[in-house]
Amino acid sequence: MDPTVFHPDFKAAPYWWDDITMGDDLPQELPARADVVIVGGGLTGLNCAIELGRGGAHAVVLDAEPLGFGASTRNGGGVSGGNNVGKGLSGAKGRQGVEEAKAEMRAIMADGLAGLNHIEGLIAREAIDCHYERTGRFVGAWTPKHYDGMAAKAEVLNELADADAHMVPRDRQREEIASDYYHGGMVVNRTGKIHPALYHRGLTAAARKHGATLIGTCRAGKLTRIAEGWRVETTKGPIEAKDVVIATNGYTGGLTPDLKRRLIPVASHIIATEVLDPALAASLIPKRRTLADSRRILSYYRMSPDGTRVLFGGRARFTQVSPEVSAPILREMMLARWPQLKGVRVTHAWTGNVAFAFDALPHMGVTPKGLHYAMGCNGSGVAMLSYLGAEVGKKLLGGTNRLPVFDGRDFPTRAFYTGTPWMLPIVGNWYRFRDWLDRRAA
Question: How, if at all, do strands 346-357 and 263-273 pair?
Answer without folding.
Answer: antiparallel
